[in-house]
Amino acid sequence: MKHIIAVLLENEPGALSRVVGLFSARGYNIESLTVAPTEDPSLSRMTIQTAGSDEVIEQITKHLNRLIEVVKVVDLTEGAYTERELMMVKVRAVGKEREEMKRMADIFRGRIIDVTEKSYTIELTGDQSKNDAFLEAIERGAILETVRTGSSGIGRGERILRV
Amino acid sequence: MVRRKNQCAYGFGFKFQRDSTSVCEGAPKVFRQRNSQRLNMEISKAEITSAVAATTSAKGQATTGKAPAATSKDQELRGAEILIKALQAEGVKYVWGYPGGAVLHIYDALYKQDTIQHILVRHEQAAVHAADGYARATGDVGVALVTSGPGATNAVTGIATAYMDSIPMVIVTGQVPTQAIGLDAFQECDTVGITRPVVKHNFLIKDVRDLAETMKKAFHIARSGRPGPVVVDIPKDVSFKKVHYAGYPATVEMRSYNPVRKGHGGQIRKALALLLAAKRPYIYTGGGVVLSNASAELRTLVDMMGCPCTNTLMGLGAYPASDRKFLGMLGMHGTVEANNAMQHCDVLLAVGARFDDRVIGNPKHFAQNERKIIHIDIDPSSISKRVKVDIPIVGDVKDVLTEMIAMIKEGSTKPDVGSLAPWWDTIEGWRKGECLKYDHGKNDVIKPQYVIETLGNMTKGVDTYITSDVGQHQMWAAQYFRFDEPRRWINSGGLGTMGVGIPYAMGIKMARPQSEVFCITGDGSVQMCIQELSTCLQYNTPIKIISLNNRYLGMVRQWQEVEYEGRYSHSYMDALPNFVKLAEAYGHVGMLIERAQDVEPALREARKLKDRTVFMDFRTDPTENVFPMVRAGSGITEMLLGSEDL
Taking CB atoms and an 8 Å cutoff, what residues of chain A touch B201? Predict the structure, then answer.
């Protein structure tokens, strides 16, 4: 099952590699991982998307907590949460494709952020399934390049993760 | 085996006489002048006083003399000097190490002080093992110091060994100067990167101003929570730079690291209710009880409960082997009664143990029988890792057991020892099989078990430490020595590192010069760190090496016999050295023992040579196997009991 784990950790060199090393050393999956400093520059916030049985997820959170630089760990999927991913897709846009691509971008509430004679670059945000759906919806051969940030997650309402 | 006719019974006799004069005479107690690079006598005296001073002033305050002025707190100091001050403030008495380019400033600072004794090993791996052995025996943090590059990579095996057994250690590694990092400099390696998976934590100090606080953190992390090794990587320029030093921090605050000590009261109460209602309770304890110094509490609890108890390989000695309630070690080479009780108990109390694959065998087989499991461990990630636990209790073993005992004393339900009679009857039935009984053999070939048993009987009640390497001899030592006290059985259980025996023994002998320290080893393992015989001579750490020499990598040979139809692929050690001569070449005493009737007199003789390291080469039965044995993938009750089961 898919899980989204949010981690607050010290913003120190090597902290990221400890997290990544833990996943590879113990054979856990990372489907995506995003990390950046928070409003407090001494702290980084990480969102890890992973998959596994309940036992595996329990071990993952326990091992993350065991890392000295990790301050807090929350499995967002245990409660209500919001997840967003930014995706940029460069698509071929010539002839009547130009019109169609524009329309598809509008339907998915994407924005065209770069235009050339032959291509559009479309920016989309949403949860991963929405971004997946967009890629499914347009013609495969028209996709020139895709870049996705991976999910960032935050708890809903009163669910707050901070020090 | 064929006995060499021209050698006397246990060939030491006259050789020992001749050597004793040349080696012992005039040698200072701690420091051997002749082998030293520091040639003037004054320094050797300083070295001696340093050991004395270190033992008397546990706080390790800097003394006068050549040490940098320590009176004023506000002063300019080099990084290396701050490091020494940090070690002194942490009460470090011994540092095992090996110098090299990147740590020369640190070695210079070591030279100028006299409270910490440095022990120069012959290989960095042994430096870490020796400090690790010291930590296991004393409970203090073990400290090792090595240089960058190969110094650090050689130390990795030692660090991983300590990590797997959760031993508190601080390993200081030199690093190339900060401006050279990443440029493939001479003797550069990414020490923090290489050691990351085998340390509790590690640091690279890039600014000398962070040094004191980082050392404080390193020691704090190493000894608190679930202990473990911490690596501190110090670039050469950091150890050279001068900085204003305002004293060593008294406390350390880390928002991201606050290990729990106290267990959850409600959980403990629930656990106790379950335990008191059990018809077939069983207490299974591991290295955590030893690490937490909770042996007294464990004994109290077991006595109150009147229930059987078993220890893992790492936990031996936590409960006295001579007590009837002790069922012996459990696991792959555990006793029938210990393993059967594990399978058939109805409530299992696991304390500071981690249900490792060598302990519970096949987890599916283990889960076939229903039982409630209570698990006390300081590390939540050890709980429900391999088996599902009903009542987890996260906390320090000592704290939790103390609270449990208090609850029994105050509570209304008292343990009903009498109700356990049927359970004890079953256990006694298993016990009757005497699974550790072995065939003494018709001729005078030496059975390895007999050597251990003889040593055990001979040292009953004596202040003794036993270290071992890894293999058959390790299992025989664990099965037949019968440990009654914790921290007396020192071995590499988790990583299973061959070669730890001699360094462990010399590390312990350093801290416990009055105790008898034996290293039980085999002809394979002992050769993995045999160069340390040289260190033993230089620092006068007389240990007794009991090598069970069967000319085979015995445990490998045993598995090949059991699992590979006797295809002994590369497990025979051809061209073994003459260990007696080798010991003599290192300045020690060598003995060759080939007949069963010589075992006891030889051990007696070796123990008499109190100030000599003695290498005892016991030629043991090469066909002997360790039984009982649980084959890989089998359940813990599916045991092979002897060669007839093969």
Answer: 68
Q: Is B531 labeled as catalytic in the residue annotation? A: no
Nearest to B532 by CA among B140, B129, B155: B129
From CA B111, how far away is CA B118, in angstroms rounded? 9
**Catalytic-labelled residue, pool B47, B81, B90, B124:** B124
Reduced to 3 states (helix: H, G, I; strand: E, B; else coil), residue B355 is coil
Interface test with A, best of B198, B256, B384 (most A CBs within 10 A): B256
Strands A143-148, A152-155: parallel, antiparallel or unpaired by DSSP? unpaired
Contacts B221 to A, Cβ<8 Å? 68
Which listed CATH number (3.30.70.1150, 1.20.1530.20, 3.40.50.2300, 3.10.100.10) goes with A83-152?
Answer: 3.30.70.1150
Q: Which of B475, B555, B616, B639 is catalytic?
A: B555
Instruction: Identify whether the C-beta of residue A159 lies closer than 8 Å to the C-beta of residue A79.
Output: yes
A5 phi/psi in degrees, rounded to 5: -110, 125
Tell me the pairing of strands B281-285 and B309-311.
Answer: parallel
Of A93, A142, A135, residue with least CA distance to A116: A93
Q: Is B187 a catalytic residue?
A: yes
Interval A29-52 mean pLDDT: 96
Whole-prediction pTM:
0.90
Residue-wise pLDDT for A41-98, tens only, equals: 999 999 999 999 999 999 999 999 999 999 999 999 999 999 999 999 999 999 999 9
Tokens describing residue B69: 């002025």
For residue B77, the enclosing domain spans: 50-245
Burial of residue A112, with CB atoms counted within 10 A of its CB: 0-12 exposed, 13-18 middle, 19 or more buried: middle
Q: Are A26 and A59 in contact (CB under 8 A)?
A: yes
Is 70 exceeded by the pLDDT of residue B319?
yes
Q: Kindly compute the dihedral angle of the four CA atoms of residues B187, B189, B195, B200, in this order, to the nearest 10 degrees.
A: 90
| Closest CB from B192, B193, B256 relative to A10 | B256
Confidence of residue B74 (pLDDT cuts 50, 70, 90): low
